[in-house]
What we know:
three-stranded antiparallel β-sheet; 5% helix; Metal Binding Protein, Guanine Nucleotide Exchange Factor, Chain A; mainly beta; binds zinc ion; 1 helix
Amino acid sequence: MTDFPLTGGCNCGAVRFEVCAPIPIASYWHCKRCQRRSGTAASANAHPAEGTFRIVDGEDKLRMWKPDDGGEKWFCGRCGSHLFGRNPAHPDAIGIRMGAFDGNPGTRPSVRQFVRYAAPCEPIPDDGLPRNPESRHARIPADRDE
Ligand SMILES: [Zn+2]
């Protein structure tokens, strides 16, 4: 059972967010950029419906890095927790880092992306999820990153 709003935040508690409706889709990202950003082999991201995600506290603590060829990566400037990515030009405009939810977000990743760059230290589990060498939206031009 999932209660709404879903809530989440960073390690130090400065930044808090919520999602007010069920999340349509979530995905694993295996790109090197997500590996470096998260310090893990893959990053699980939940993609909320438009207008259902908001920062409820600590907006002034948020910091962002935007690579030239990718979307914004938002994190807490105090504790360093990565919280979400944003790219208005992308079909999945918001990617909430799933480890940042307080409880059960009510959805699980249903697809893997950028598996061409998967970390050699952690083989991709044989879980039957679709595996895309690049973005799952690879038919869309200039869609290299979230
Ligand atoms: Zn923090």
